[in-house]
Amino acid sequence: MNRMIRDTIKVFVIFTMCTVLFYVGLQIMHREYEEIHRYDPPEGPAVKVFYSQTKLLERFQLFFKAGE
After folding, report:
1. Using CA atoms, how far apart are residues 14 and 8, in angstroms rounded to an integer?
2. If we measure between CA atoms, which residue out of 40, 37, 50 comes closest to residue 59?
3. Whose CB among 3, 32, 48, 58 lies 3.0–4.6 Å from 54's, allowing a Cys bridge?
4. CA distances from residue 47 to 29, 50, 64 in whole angstroms, order as listed
5. How many CB atoms lie within 10 A of CB 6?
6. Left (φ > 0), alpha (ψ -120 to 50) or beta: where does 67 sit?
7. Coil, helix or strand for 46?
8. Which helix (H) or strand (E) holds 66?
9. What is the pLDDT of residues 13-54, one digit of tens each?
10. For residues 16-50, b (16+ Cβ closer than 10 Å) or e, as one string?
């Protein structure tokens, strides 16, 4: 009985330590990525990806014609 309680405590301590280590790792990654500005304007020879001169009705017709 005494050995079972000791093993249970060992498992609980190891689980708690792993949980704390995982949480601290997540906090460190969060702090690292929080400083990155995701929406900075692009630098260099950037090209606009989407530019449409079609009207809304034409876009709907194309949408239904393509079957998407």
Report:
1. 10
2. 50
3. 58
4. 31, 9, 29
5. 10
6. left
7. coil
8. helix 56-66
9. 999 999 999 999 999 999 988 888 777 777 788 776 766 666
10. eeeeeeeeeeeeeeeeeeeeeeeeeeeeeeeeeee
- The residue with tokens 């020879």 is 45
Nearest to 27 by CA among 19, 15, 38: 19
- Domain map of the chain by residue range? 2-66
**N-to-C CA span, the chain:** 66
- How far apart, in whole angstroms, are the C-alpha atoms of residue 22 and residue 16? 10
How far is Cα 66 from Cα 60, in angstroms, rounded to an integer? 10
Q: State the pTM of this model.
A: 0.51
